Structures are given as structure tokens and as C-alpha cells.
Inverse folding.
């Protein structure tokens, strides 16, 4: 599902934030205008994709956020909103009033929560308030940026607020050329073991896991894969492909970690499938140079069979960033296309 | 109804309406209270084309009634008002036979026309000020003509798209009833004026509708319908403008150093011709396929 | 089809700077007796050639000065003199539109006229009324005539005479003139050098080619919008669509097709020949129409079509377009019929400097049309 950025403003400063590069490149008051929104909605409509995610920064900080949701509902779009759940009292009250007639088929929230022990109390309170009010629309998202991440609080939240019994698990990825907190390839196995240790408890609470992009398959043993398979009811993916993000200025990039890499404009394309194809080709070219984040990826049967993409493409681009000659070579490959 | 006759535009005057028969009538008003009555009375022995309400306020401050559903309405409002309230109005607006005109006074109105059109509400821009935001106008025009998505008509672009013929001048004032070949304006006594301004100024060309057959030879009528020629006599920019054929000098008062109106209207003309070419190609393809079968 | 350029009068209410007729100061009007005789001779001609038709072009001077009665009388004469052939006579009219009235229009319609050919000028002081050549008064009356014609369902087309002033901004002029009449774009003709008195407005061959060249890219881009703008459409049809439809002066086949009849019955090869006083034939009073149409003096035109491709126009790729140009122009230039027209210069420049580089279409029209005559 493609992502539309409503605003660059955010209320948090997460250590792993992979939107960092994009945010630093953009004007802080850059918000999506009605004109651009109309164009984007028409663009997706014409592409026969009547659903997308709204992102920020924090989407609730967009001055017309609720109006946008109402408009999208009128256009019969299914909207998913990535939010921190942090917002002003006024906005919260308005949201309660305006969103009461939405159905979960029309609107869903993915609340990105951080470990409560490391979260300021006031922020925690507003997140809890949001989860209480919109629990039936909401699933949780958690970005793993430490090998020993604690996930018990997620289960508590789901049970306490009646959230959707699913957790979207994202890996914090590197931003080529910038420093953010993420787990290097060498630490992924340890992270996987920690993750698997939570499976029994998740199963006991009927909560499934789903992986966001860039999770490599081989960090799990076959036995662990079986456990995951059962937990996720077979809905597992170990792929990395273009998400397609559209900024308020109508720029387009493949995903946040690669927001400064081959950025283009939505006006260069006729539909969203063309955008995906464009970035798929770029990624495919890059992966010809380096197949995946591990050396074994070069000869991996699972990669050849498209069961796994070999980890996040941002890791690959990051490698080139430290090797100037290769960057040039890599870029030349792109330009030939 | 009388064929090839002008539609009569008048405020509601029961005695006058009673005198008319088999006429196509537009009732203009600024009052929403009697809409159902207007509809019933006019349709007794004439045909109501629509009721046009000139409302000095926002769309969202109008209380729409379920009983208006079957009545053709044209609303001239200042703005749509709050987006939030507008979206809440959508369920009832969708059921109405309504066309909503917003003024060119604020840039937001141009965007709101797009919003309305994208939600299936027929809409249009009307020109209440000579201060025109040509960029916004061009954006709206691009949307109205080129948008790949299904959307409701936006006037006057829809009128131009539907009626443009390469070999004749096109006057989009028709959209606003200011075209005496298509619309005549009546006062309460049934006197006839050629356009809304003349009606306001009490400048009448005929004393009543029974004299309408003499209209083609009426000097004021001839003058009005040929006033475009003054541009050629005066050699105005408009007479030398590529977009003349679809504009006829309507924006002569807004001409700036960049000739924004000419650029925008020329883009419009190109768009209209492109649109027609596309339709023609589609038609040709269909015919070819038919022939193959 | 035989084309008769018929000038019942050469009187004109206008005083256009480039008009050869007005300078003749002939104010006579053809009488009814002669008019009757002409239609009688047309009838004889049409009876002899049952598949032939006549395009009878009312020309002037200003035909409107003849008044409605004249045309109504003509209508009666046509039906008296041509009881079985009148439907093979197509009446056409050239008018400056400034003196038309409802009665004249009604008479036109009675004759079956559906369109009026006219002229218009953008710049002041070139076309105008009276000694001072009042352009504004002329243009106002012109529009009154246009309105009257259009109200009566008549269409109109016009010629624009390209002069020195036209060179200021050809594209602006083109847009103005095509806006003026959307149904029919003008024909842009080169101003002719009738005499040297007011030659400051006369353009040379290069200037005319440059004028057309300045418009050509725009016309090519929008030719669907201006399909009838001439000579662009003529070149396009000839070169691209291979439909040779150039004007009479470039077709080389006017030999027995055209005749001018003046107010006194004098005849000549065509309207311009009548204006110039060259290529004259016997007066209509003294010969049948057939004798005039097939007069031996016309043979020079046919002969020229055979000799030119072997001489001055030998191997010229543009022969198929211009056929050596108009015999009158050649005669005026060299006082002999057998030469190519001096207009060859603008055609060559237009094709080689503008058409071919802009369109990328090379003109090779020699073999197909050579020795056509």
C-alpha cells in the first residue's frame, strides 16, 4: 500500500526514525494542500487503487486532517493512518466527534508505539487515551531497533484496549549517509531469537505477527519458521520492494530510508503501477551488484525463488555510500537504464 | 414546449407565469422558502427549466430539504463554507438535482469546485470580480478537461467542451443566461430585456412576449448579438487572441502584462480541441471495429 | 466549368489603395439589352455543350451599387433567355459588403447565391471609403453587411491582400483575420503592382515568401483549426495529400475556362486581364461565347504549358505546384506569354526556405504533372 505524507511535522523524536533524512530535507511547515491531495486521490483512483496510508510526521498535525478523512470516505477510499496517537485535546475531541460514523472498513489506524518504559508519561497518557477511544480501528506497530526489544507491553495494550489482535513488526533500517539507530545485519539473528521467545505468549493471547518489509528469512531457523508460520497463519513475508511514498510537494520515493535516493515526482508517471515498476527496476539493478545484506545471499535458493529479498535495500545502498568507486559504478548502472 | 425559442428567465410572479404558456422558464430568486411552490406553479402550464437561487452566503449555511430532490436547482453562493460541514451535507446533496456556482473571489473557491466535482456535484465558477487568480483558474481548467477520473461537470468548461465547434464563435455567457439568442429576461410586467444587467437597469427591448417574433429585427437585439465586432473595429488584444473563438473578449478588463487571460484561455482552447480529437479518434476506432465485424 | 467574371459595373464606393479597377474610373453600367444578349449567348453555349456548366461571378467595382432591381431583372432575363439551361448557371458574387441591403440580399438569394466573396484589411488607410479612404467607416459598413448576410443565412469568405504593412507582425494579423470569420479563413494574396504611384505598399517576392513563412509553423501546428487558410492549405493539399488544388494562377489550365466580360461588353482572358487591359478577346457583342472561350489567341497558354517544362522550368521539382505560374504575370513581366511567372521566386523561396525545413517534406512534383497540358 502506498503512503501519502500529509505533513513533515512530528511530535516525537524516535532514535530509529527512518524518516529523518526526508524530514531534514523538507521545510517543516510543508503540508499537503487540497490541490495536491485531489491530484493524488485521482491518481490512485485512476490506478484502480482505492486505498492508501496517510503518514507524517504526525498526520493529526495536518490542519485539515479530519476533513481529508471525510473527503476520502466520500471518494470511497479505504484509508489507513499511521499515527503516534499523540495529539491535542481539541483535536482529540474533534476526532471523536467526526470519526464516530466511520466503519473499520473505511478507516484504520496503525499506532506506532514505543516501549512505555522509555516514553514520557504525558505522551503515554495521550497514546492510551487514543487507544481507548479508537481501539476497534487500531492495530499496533512496533519498530525493532534493539536486539533485546521488549514486546510484552504490546500484548498488554491489545488486551487492555481491545485492539486488533495483530502486531505489525518493523525493522529499523539504516538511512544511507545518515546515522540512525538500527540493528546491523550481524545482530539480526539475536533479534530473531528474542522475537521467537515472545511467540508462546503471543499465541496464548491469539495475537499474530506480521513483518514489515526487509526482514531476511535466514535469520530464523526452520523450526522457528514453523512457529512463525503457525502464529501468522501463513501470512509471512520476507520481501523488500518499493512501498511508494508521496510527499506534500508531490515528490515520490521508494520508502523512507531511501527518501533521498532516486527521488522523482508523481507528475512523471501515469499511474502508481508505473512508479512501482520504476523503483522495482532500480532495486533489481542494485541487487545485481549485491544480492542481499549477507554474503550467503548471492547463492541463496530462497532469494532465487523470491521467498526472500535478502533484507532491506537500504543496507545495500548504505554499503555503496562507504565505497565511492562502487557508488559511481552503481549509479552508472542506473543511468544506463 | 415551444421549439427554438429562448428560455425565459424571471423572478417568480404568479400573474406573469399564468399568462405564459408552453414556455421554458427559469425562476430566479434569493429565497429558499418557496422553492416547492415555484416548481408546482410554473409546471402547471409551462416547463420549469430550473430555479436559480442567488444566495449571499455559504453553501453550508443552506438548509437543504428532502422535498427539493426532484426540483432542478442552480445555486450561486459565495463559497462552500466549512469543508467539514460540506462533507456532512454530501448525503443529501447527492440526492439533489443541483448545480452549484462559486464566485471567483477567493482562490479557495477554485479548489472547492474541484472537490465538489470530484464528489459528483455539478458545479461552476462565476465571475463576480475582475481580479482573477489565473493560476487557480488554470488549475481548475486542467482538472475539468484533463482529469482522468470521472467527475461531475464544471462550468463553464463543460459548456465549452460540449459545444465547441471549430467554425463558430462560442459564447460561454450562455451558462449564466446572458445570451439573448438562448435566454430572455422578463420583469414582473413581462417586459423583456436581453440580459440580466439590462433587466436590472430597466432596459427593455420588447413590451411583452407576444412580440417575440419581431426580436430578430430589433436593433438593440442586433447590436447585442453583434457587439463582438467592436473588438475587431477597435483592434483590441482580444481580436488578436488565439482564444477569441471561445472567449469573445470576456476578460478584456483583466488583461495584464503577462496576458494571463490569453495564455489560460488558449490552453483551454488547445485542451478542448485535444478532447474533441480524442473523441473523434475513439469514434473512428469504434467504426473501424464495427466495419471489421 | 466555364468561369465568367462578369462586371456589370466597375463603379465602386470604396477607394482601395491596391485596386486596379477603381483606377480605371469607369462608371458605366451594363444595360439590359447587353445583359440579355449575354445570357442568350450563354444559353447557346450551354445548349451546344450539354455537360458544361457556367460559374457566373458577379464582380465589380461594387456589385451592390447595381441595386436590387438590377439583380431581379437579371433573374428574369436568365429565366427568359435560358429556359432549359438556367440550372446549369451557378451565380456567385464578389462584394465589399458595404452597400448591401435586404433587397439586394433577397435578390442574391433568388439567384441562388449562398455565399459572398469579399476582402478585408486590418491596417487603416488601405481599404476605405471616399477620397480620404475612411477605413473605420468602411469597416463599420462591412460588418453591417456581414450581419445582414449572416442573418439571411449567407456565408462569406474573404481575401486579404498582403502589403508592406502586413509584414509588421504576420502572425498577429493571421490570428486577427482568422478570428474574424471562423467559418472560412482568408486567402492571403500578394499585393499586385498595378502602377507605380503608391508602390510604397507593394511587397516583393521575397517579402511575400517571408510573410507566409512566418505563419507556416503556426498554421501547420493548428491546421485542423484553420483548414481553409490559403495558400497554406493549398500547398498542404498539393504536397502532402497530392490533391492539386492551387488557385487558377498555378494550375496552368485556364485556357478555355475563364472569361472576363466588362460593362461595355469587352472581354479578356480573366478578371485580372480585364483589369490590366491585356489578353483581350472580341467584344461579346461581336462574337459568340464559344468563339471567345476557344479563341485562337488562347493557344499561347496551352503552348506555354508544353514549352516551359522543356525550357525555363526544366527539371524544376515545383513544376507540379505552380506550372510556371500565371500567364498574365509572365506577360506583364516580360511582355511575352511564353515565360514563367516572376511569382516563381516567392514559391521557390517559400518552399525551400520554409516549407521543406519546417515540415521535413521534400517537394518532388516534377514527373507526375509535367506536360499535363
Amino acid at each position: 500500500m502506498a503512503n501519502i505524507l500529509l505533513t513533515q511535522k512530528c511530535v516525537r523524536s524516535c532514535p530509529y526514525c527512518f524518516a529523518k533524512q526526508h524530514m531534514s530535507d523538507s521545510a517543516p511547515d510543508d503540508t499537503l494542500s487540497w490541490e495536491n491531495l485531489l491530484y493524488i486521490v485521482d491518481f490512485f483512483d485512476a490506478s484502480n487503487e482505492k486505498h492508501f496510508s496517510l503518514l507524517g510526521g504526525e498526520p493529526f498535525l495536518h490542519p485539515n486532517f479530519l476533513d481529508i478523512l471525510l473527503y476520502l470516505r466520500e471518494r470511497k477510499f479505504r484509508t489507513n493512518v499511521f499515527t503516534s496517537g499523540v495529539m491535542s485535546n481539541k483535536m482529540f475531541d474533534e476526532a471523536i466527534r467526526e470519526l464516530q460514523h466511520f466503519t473499520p472498513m473505511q478507516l484504520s489506524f496503525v499506532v506506532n508505539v514505543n516501549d512505555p518504559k522509555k516514553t514520557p508519561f504525558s505522551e503515554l497518557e495521550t497514546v492510551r487515551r487514543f487507544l481507548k477511544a479508537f481501539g476497534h480501528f487500531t492495530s499496533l506497530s512496533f519498530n525493532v531497533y534493539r536486539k533485546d526489544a521488549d514486546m510484552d507491553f504490546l500484548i498488554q495494550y491489545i488486551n487492555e484496549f481491545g485492539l486488533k489482535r495483530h502486531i505489525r513488526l518493523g525493522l529499523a533500517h539504516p538511512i544511507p549517509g545518515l546515522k540512525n539507530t538500527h540493528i546491523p545485519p550481524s545482530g539480526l539473528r539475536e533479534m530473531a531469537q528474542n522475537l521467537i521467545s515472545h511467540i508462546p505468549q503471543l499465541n496464548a493471547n491469539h495475537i499474530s505477527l506480521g513483518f514489515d518489509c526487509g526482514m531476511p528469512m535466514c535469520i530464523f531457523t526452520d523450526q522457528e519458521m514453523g512457529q512463525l508460520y503457525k502464529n501468522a497463519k501463513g501470512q509471512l513475508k520476507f520481501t523488500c520492494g518499493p512501498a511508494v511514498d508521496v510527499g506534500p510537494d508531490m515528490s515520490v520515493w521508494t520508502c523512507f530510508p531511501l527518501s533521498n535516493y532516486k527521488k522523482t515526482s508523481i507528475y512523471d508517471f501515469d499511474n502508481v503501477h508505473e512508479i512501482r515498476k520504476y523503483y522495482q527496476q532500480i532495486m533489481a539493478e542494485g541487487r545485481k551488484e549485491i544480492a542481499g545484506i549477507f554474503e550467503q545471499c548471492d547463492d541463496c535458493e530462497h532469494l532465487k525463488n523470491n521467498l526472500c529479498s535478502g533484507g532491506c535495500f537500504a543496507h545495500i545502498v548504505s554499503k555503496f555510500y562507504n565505497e565511492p568507486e562502487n557508488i559511481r559504478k552503481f549509479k552508472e548502472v542506473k543511468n544506463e537504464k | 414546449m415551444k421549439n427554438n425559442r429562448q428560455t425565459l428567465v424571471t423572478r417568480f410572479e404568479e400573474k406573469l407565469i399564468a399568462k405564459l404558456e408552453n414556455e421554458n422558464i427559469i425562476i430566479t430568486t434569493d429565497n429558499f422558502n418557496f422553492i416547492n411552490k415555484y416548481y408546482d406553479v410554473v409546471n402547471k402550464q409551462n416547463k420549469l427549466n430550473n430555479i436559480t437561487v442567488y444566495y449571499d452566503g455559504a453553501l453550508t449555511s443552506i438548509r437543504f430539504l428532502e422535498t427539493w430532490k426532484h426540483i432542478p436547482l442552480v445555486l450561486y453562493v459565495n463559497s462552500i463554507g466549512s469543508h467539514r460541514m460540506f462533507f456532512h451535507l454530501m448525503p443529501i446533496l447527492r440526492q439533489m438535482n443541483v448545480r452549484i456556482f462559486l464566485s471567483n473571489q477567493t482562490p479557495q473557491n477554485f479548489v472547492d469546485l474541484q472537490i465538489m466535482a470530484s464528489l459528483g456535484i455539478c458545479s461552476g465558477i462565476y465571475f463576480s470580480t475582475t481580479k482573477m487568480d489565473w493560476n487557480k483558474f488554470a488549475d481548475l481548467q486542467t482538472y475539468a478537461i484533463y482529469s482522468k477520473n470521472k467527475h461531475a461537470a464544471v462550468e463553464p468548461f463543460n459548456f465549452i467542451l460540449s459545444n465547441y465547434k471549430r467554425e463558430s464563435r462560442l459564447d460561454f455567457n450562455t451558462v449564466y443566461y446572458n445570451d439573448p439568442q438562448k435566454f430572455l429576461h422578463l420583469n414582473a410586467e413581462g417586459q423583456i430585456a436581453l440580459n440580466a444587467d439590462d433587466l436590472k437597469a430597466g432596459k427593455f427591448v420588447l413590451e411583452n412576449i407576444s412580440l417575440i417574433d419581431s426580436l430578430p429585427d430589433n436593433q438593440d437585439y442586433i447590436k447585442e448579438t453583434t457587439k463582438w465586432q467592436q473588438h475587431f473595429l477597435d483592434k483590441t488584444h482580444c481580436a488578436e487572441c488565439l482564444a477569441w473563438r471561445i472567449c469573445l473578449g470576456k476578460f478584456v478588463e483583466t488583461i495584464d502584462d503577462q496576458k494571463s487571460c490569453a495564455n489560460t484561455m488558449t490552453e483551454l482552447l488547445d485542451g478542448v480541441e485535444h478532447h474533441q480529437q480524442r473523441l473523434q479518434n475513439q469514434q473512428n476506432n469504434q467504426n473501424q471495429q464495427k466495419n471489421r465485424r | 466549368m466555364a468561369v465568367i467574371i462578369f462586371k456589370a459595373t466597375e463603379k465602386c464606393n470604396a477607394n482601395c489603395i491596391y485596386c486596379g479597377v477603381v483606377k480605371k474610373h469607369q462608371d458605366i453600367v451594363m444595360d439590359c439589352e447587353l445583359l440579355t444578349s449575354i445570357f442568350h449567348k450563354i444559353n447557346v453555349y450551354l445548349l451546344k455543350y450539354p455537360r458544361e456548366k457556367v460559374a457566373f461571378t458577379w464582380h465589380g467595382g461594387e456589385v451592390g451599387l447595381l441595386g436590387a432591381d438590377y439583380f431581379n431583372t437579371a433573374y428574369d432575363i436568365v429565366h427568359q433567355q435560358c429556359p432549359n439551361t438556367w440550372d446549369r448557371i451557378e451565380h456567385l458574387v464578389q462584394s465589399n459588403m458595404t452597400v448591401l441591403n435586404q433587397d439586394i440580399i433577397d435578390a442574391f438569394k433568388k439567384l441562388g447565391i449562398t455565399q459572398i466573396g469579399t476582402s478585408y484589411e486590418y491596417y487603416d488607410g488601405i481599404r476605405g471609403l471616399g477620397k480620404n479612404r475612411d477605413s473605420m467607416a468602411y469597416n463599420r459598413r462591412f460588418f453591417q453587411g456581414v450581419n445582414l448576410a449572416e442573418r439571411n443565412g449567407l456565408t462569406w469568405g474573404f481575401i486579404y491582400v498582403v502589403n508592406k504593412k502586413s509584414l509588421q507582425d504576420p502572425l498577429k494579423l493571421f490570428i486577427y483575420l482568422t478570428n474574424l470569420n471562423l467559418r472560412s479563413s482568408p486567402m492571403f494574396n500578394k499585393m499586385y503592382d498595378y502602377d507605380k504611384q503608391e508602390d510604397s505598399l507593394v511587397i516583393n517576392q521575397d517579402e511575400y515568401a517571408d510573410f507566409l513563412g512566418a505563419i507556416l509553423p503556426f498554421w501547420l501546428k493548428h491546421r485542423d483549426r484553420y483548414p481553409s487558410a490559403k495558400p497554406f492549405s493549398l500547398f498542404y493539399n498539393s504536397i502532402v495529400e497530392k490533391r492539386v488544388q492551387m488557385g487558377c494562377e498555378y494550375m496552368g489550365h485556364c485556357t478555355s475556362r475563364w472569361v472576363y466580360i466588362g460593362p461595355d461588353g469587352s472581354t479578356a482572358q480573366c478578371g485580372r486581364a480585364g483589369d490590366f487591359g491585356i489578353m483581350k478577346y472580341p467584344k461579346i457583342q461581336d462574337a459568340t461565347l464559344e468563339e471567345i472561350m476557344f479563341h485562337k489567341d488562347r493557344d499561347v497558354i496551352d503552348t506555354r504549358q508544353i514549352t516551359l517544362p522543356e525550357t525555363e522550368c526544366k527539371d524544376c521539382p515545383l513544376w507540379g505546384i505552380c506550372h510556371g505560374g500565371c500567364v498574365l504575370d509572365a506577360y506583364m513581366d516580360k511582355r511575352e506569354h511564353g515565360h514563367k511567372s516572376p511569382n516563381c521566386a516567392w514559391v521557390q523561396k517559400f518552399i525551400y526556405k520554409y516549407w521543406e525545413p519546417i515540415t521535413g517534406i521534400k517537394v518532388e512534383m516534377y514527373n507526375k504533372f509535367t506536360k499535363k497540358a
Summary: The beta strands of chain A are 3-5, 51-55, 78-83, 107-112, 138-144, 166-171, 208-211, 245-246, 251-253, 264-265.
